[in-house]
Amino acid sequence: MNRKDAKEGQEPAAAGHGHRPGPLSDVASVERLEVEPDRRFYSASHDEIASGLTTDIYFVRTMEILRDLGLAATPVVAEIFASREGVMAGNEEASNLLAGRGVSLWALPEGERFGPQEVVMRISGPYQAFGPYETALLGILASSSAWATAAAECREAADPKPFICFGARHVHPAVAPVMERAALVGGAAGASCILAAKLAGLDPSGTIPHAAMLIAGDTLVIAEAYDRTMPAEAPRIILVDTFHDEAEEALRVARRMGERLTGVRLDTPGERGGVTPDLVREVRARLDQEGFEHVKIFVSGGLDPDRIRLLKDAGADAFGVGSYISRARPIDMTMDIKEVAGRPIAKRGRIPGVTQSPRLQRVL
Known about the structure:
- By secondary structure, this protein is α/β, with parallel strands linked by helices.
- The protein has two domains: 172 residues, Aldehyde Oxidoreductase, domain 3 (Alpha-Beta Complex); 181 residues, TIM Barrel (Alpha-Beta Barrel).
- It is 37% helix and 16% strand.
- It is built from 14 helices and 14 strands.
- Strands 13-12-1-5-3-14 form a six-stranded antiparallel beta sheet.
- The longest helix has 25 residues.
């Protein structure tokens, strides 16, 4: 990013070392903005988000007009409310974006459910301190809460059995850790994305893909190599649908690995009907008949809450869920100014003044 584009004396500060980058100062600075021609990815960096480069242009226009009127620092209270019910997520990123900017922040705790039109966040302070970040704030909450909500639906369907988020492959890599962290807030027991898991203080969850079996040419060869090379604490969960009948392959692996085998994973593609309750029942019965009651059945592949319930009842022990979480429709979030210089105010159709929201907790 070429920082010479910003207005002299007001260019965004570099992030880190205690500095708080500020938003672009005016429309002219936007016009002068240049993007490096050799930029590798289109995703915004942390500095670019903090500098207001992901905001809508009309907020920059607003700030320039308010400065001209001498009103940019007017103290206001703004509230964010949700369009539909869901599970709260995104608070940490929202508070990190606003920290050190001289505002007070209240929010519904992460993991809490909210209803339609319920206020989930309140911000109080000079408008110029947070107004330019409205776009980023709403985007953070809209996407994170949607992913957490989808994960909560899966958690309720799987209860008391666990599920892992496998959704990173369905979204842009820049937001994959955000998505899987939100899934953890919603109730996922683990995340396959390395960075998402590490940010949450967890070890990444997952074993091996079909690629390993296809390259080796034999599921049993990979199972033995996995057992030989992976750390002792890593669960031995082996895919058993690559080459042969799932039940027969599960028995073949179980006979060779015995007590060392933690589980088998069923990920039968849709071209062969996917993983069905009858398939789970058959694999479970055949494993039990040969004394492999300890071997768990892990299911993945196009799962949603309805399928999770059916497969859980058939005997599945754990689930991997990807696209149902990653494709969750964002929960529209709206920010309204409800008080200006201590005076209750609102746009037509909204009630002026601060909303009574006892569930909000002070964040900043």
